[in-house]
Design goal:
The complex is a heterodimer. Chain A is built from twelve helices and no strands. Chain A is mainly alpha-helical. The radius of gyration of chain A is 31 Å and the shape is flat. The two termini of chain A are about 40 Å apart. Chain B is α/β, with parallel strands linked by helices. In chain B, α2 packs parallel to α4 and α3 packs across α4. The chains are: A mainly alpha, B alpha/beta.
Chain lengths: ~325, ~270
């Protein structure tokens, strides 16, 4: 055990342990032998480390390139392979190459407009994004302040939590008929559906964030006797921000999931409508293109919000 | 003796899930202006509760608490608190943390330049002018605690309340900050109430040591006057027989008359 301690210390200060032992006035021959052994061991370790460095560092770097670049590419290749095999064993299912050619045509003119029900994929995508922006924006405007209020006021929390528990598990599409009835307008109903489904995560996460503000920070606010506005801007908002951003990210993810489904039902424009329309045309290649466009757009939305969230987090370890 | 802080017949009963908990019973304490008081006792004896009562963070179940002729009914910047875990806001710089209190207390009558000067003076006082624009996570535990003290002092409080201010620090840093605190308190003339469980810290810094009995229903067991001349020198005191005698009295109270509750139960 003694040697183990000494080898550990010898790593950064070879003279340290022996000096300590002399101070303690106990340098029996056994201990000096142990020190000598420890030193030679430490020396060996150093010798053993040096030759590793040059070649091994390169190998380590290569390994990292493999894991960060090659692995994802391998995954994509596997997906294409499975797709190709599936296409070969089916009558109509388009192969990756067929889809690629089809995509070239679709993306050659993304912004054409041949009247209702026939516009380019760019217009459809923008229409969907616009609806998400409206629905999600309104949900943020309502949900975040409501979340703050629920987090701060116990009465409101008790009052609303059964309602939230009841309504939250309802599929957003179940709200669509009510939206259609109330607004008598398909796009407005779609926006309203997005609003309903994206309000919950923002509201609940904000409320949880408010409830989890460390009591110490609130005591600081009380001792300093800060004004309500200062408490909000200097203590509540910064400490709730990370929770709030998580809610925002979850909301956007859900909103993007729901808009596609809602547009299939409401029709008109939008990437979801386009996808369903291509099903009616039995154009499977276009359906696959739509799925990929939806996936990539969702990834981009999520990534952008991750960047914003990182900007606002005050993580103590940052 | 001028009665600057008055605590009279204070009882504190907390409502807990397992019924009422009688934390403090029959607390009577007068503190003079400029006095340095330590509250010492075993953990769970309610010394932090007593400090929170003086701060106004909690209100007593019954009894009277007065500070400078006014009843204590809420926290306020005249009774600044140095928290045990520093409680600096991580999203503000050290300067921002200190400035927050300064702005609140003096913002009404003073120019921005004056507020800035006050904030900088407080950071100077604790020896941290170079850390003003660092965030709390970029500085050491000892430095954070010093910023906490600067935040409290910058408001020119009548009373400085400290809840185990050096408890989380290593022994060397703690000794250094204790020595600095002596100088800071002497320079500012503030009245100080400090919670501690460190006997040496209590004897070194205090004018009087208030020793609490074990909870529940803890009360003041004994008050020891520390009549060592100031300024006090740590090294010189370690050889001083009177210091040793005072220290022994506190130890005797804590470990003989109020043996640790768990030790008693065992």
């Amino acid at each position: 055990m003694n040697t183990a301690v000494l080898t550990g210390a010898a790593g950064f200060d070879p003279d340290g342990p022996s000096a300590n032992l002399v101070l303690d006035g106990q340098t029996p021959p056994a201990a000096s032998a142990a020190i000598a052994a420890a030193r030679s061991k430490a020396g060996d370790a150093k010798l053993a480390i040096r030759p590793l460095s040059a070649a091994d560092r390169k190998r380590a770097r290569n390994r990292q390139i493999v894991s960060t670049l090659v692995a994802p590419l391998a995954g994509l290749a596997l997906l294409l392979l499975v797709w190709e095999l599936a296409a070969e064993h089916s009558q109509q299912f388009p192969s990756p190459l067929v889809t690629w050619h089809s995509a070239q045509q679709v993306f050659a003119h993304p912004f054409y407009d041949n009247g209702p029900n026939d516009v380019g994929i760019g217009w459809n995508l923008l229409a969907s994004l616009q609806r998400v922006a409206y629905g999600f924006g309104l949900a943020a405007l309502a949900g975040i302040p409501l979340g703050f209020a629920i987090g701060r006021m116990r009465f409101l929390n008790r009052m609303l939590s059964p309602i939230i528990s009841l309504l939250r598990p309802v599929s957003p599409l179940a709200w669509l008929p009510i939206g259609l009835y109330v607004f008598s307008n398909a796009p407005a109903a779609a926006i309203y559906t997005i609003f309903i489904c994206s309000i919950w995560p923002m509201m609940i996460n904000t409320a949880i964030g408010v409830q989890r503000i460390p009591a110490d920070y609130l005591n600081v606010a009380r001792v300093l006797d800060l004004s309500t506005w200062k408490v909000f801007t200097k203590i509540l908002l910064p400490s709730v921000m990370p929770y709030m951003m998580t809610g925002v990210r979850l909301s956007v993810g859900t909103a993007w999931l729901v808009i596609v489904a809602a547009e299939m039902l409401t029709g008109g424009t939008g990437i979801g409508f386009w996808l369903w329309n291509e099903w009616n045309n039995l154009n499977l290649a276009h359906i696959i293109i739509a799925i990929l466009v939806i996936g990539v757009t969702g990834m981009v939305l999520e990534g952008a919000l991750m960047l914003i969230a990182r900007r606002f987090s005050y993580d103590e370890a940052r | 003796m001028e009665r600057f802080i008055v605590v009279q017949h204070v009882e504190m009963v907390f409502d807990t899930a397992r019924g009422p908990f009688h934390a403090l019973k029959g607390i009577n304490l007068d503190i003079a202006r400029g006095e340095f008081i330590s509250l010492i006792g075993h953990s769970g004896c309610g010394k932090s509760t007593l400090l929170n009562l003086i701060a106004g963070l909690t209100l007593p179940t019954s009894g009277v608490m007065v500070c400078d002729g006014r009843e204590i009914h809420a926290p306020g910047p005249d009774r600044a608190v140095v928290f045990q875990n520093h409680s600096l806001l991580p999203w503000l710089t050290c300067y921002g943390n200190v400035h927050l209190g300064v702005e609140r207390v003096f913002g009404g009558n003073e120019s921005k330049a004056q507020l800035k000067a006050r904030t900088e003076a407080a950071l100077d006082l604790v020896g941290l002018p170079h850390a003003a624009h660092k965030h709390p996570h970029e500085i050491s535990g000892g430095m954070k605690q010093r910023v906490g003290i600067a935040r409290a002092l910058a408001m020119s409080p009548k009373v400085l309340l400290m809840d185990e201010p050096f408890g989380a620090l290593d022994a060397l840093t703690r000794a250094k900050l204790q020595d600095e605190l002596q100088g800071i308190v002497a320079a500012s003339g503030a009245t100080v109430v400090m919670v501690t469980h460190d006997v040496d810290e209590a004897v070194l810094l205090s004018d009087r040591i208030v020793m609490l009995t074990n909870g529940p229903a803890a009360t003041i067991g004994e008050i020891l006057t520390v009549d060592l001349p100031r300024p006090r020198e740590r090294l010189a005191l370690s050889e001083d027989p009177h210091y040793a005698h005072l220290r022994a009295q506190v130890l005797e109270f804590l470990y003989k008359r109020q043996a640790h509750p768990q030790a008693k139960a065992a």
